[in-house]
What we know:
Layout: H1 9-14, E1 30-34, E2 38-42, E3 45-57, E4 64-72, E5 78-88, E6 94-101, E7 105-113, E8 117-127, E9 136-145, E10 151-159, E11 162-174
Antiparallel strand pairs: 1-3, 1-11, 2-3, 2-11, 3-4, 4-5, 5-6, 6-7, 7-8, 8-9, 9-10, 10-11
Amino acid sequence: xxxxxxxxxxxxxxxxxxxxxxxxxxxxxxxxxxxxxxxxxxxxxxxxxxxxxxxxxxxxxxxxxxxxxxxxxxxxxxxxxxxxxxxxxxxxxxxxxxxxxxxxxxxxxxxxxxxxxxxxxxxxxxxxxxxxxxxxxxxxxxxxxxxxxxxxxxxxxxxxxxxxxxxxxxxxxxxx
Length: 176
């Protein structure tokens, strides 16, 4: 990439103007770190605590890029990772997350942006042929910016034979 400002490619990308198509998501941009360990549970697993770093960025395209990295709260070993893109349907409050997970699951979540709150539900799921069973059947996600400046995320999921149940809950503070 050639930068018109005579900066390095990395500096030029970070200086890219936010595409107007994703301006309603500007409140997400930056790095967020869990302010205390989040809680994870599901009927088929033992409850656990985790920490997580979220990074939302852009390069001037009509999408927001993201990377989520979770770690076991006590052992610090890596757990779950997700990366992908967020798109808004022009002229609406319709939003989509396009997500690839390190577990081999790929998903599209669609929903609505209302102010500084995202409510999403899985629209499509695909997985590698040797993914761990039981397979995820449905995911819902709720992300909101709280009045105190913290970001809160709740994720629910359904597995084969298990109804949609809250799986994760965590809050974050912006670190940059």
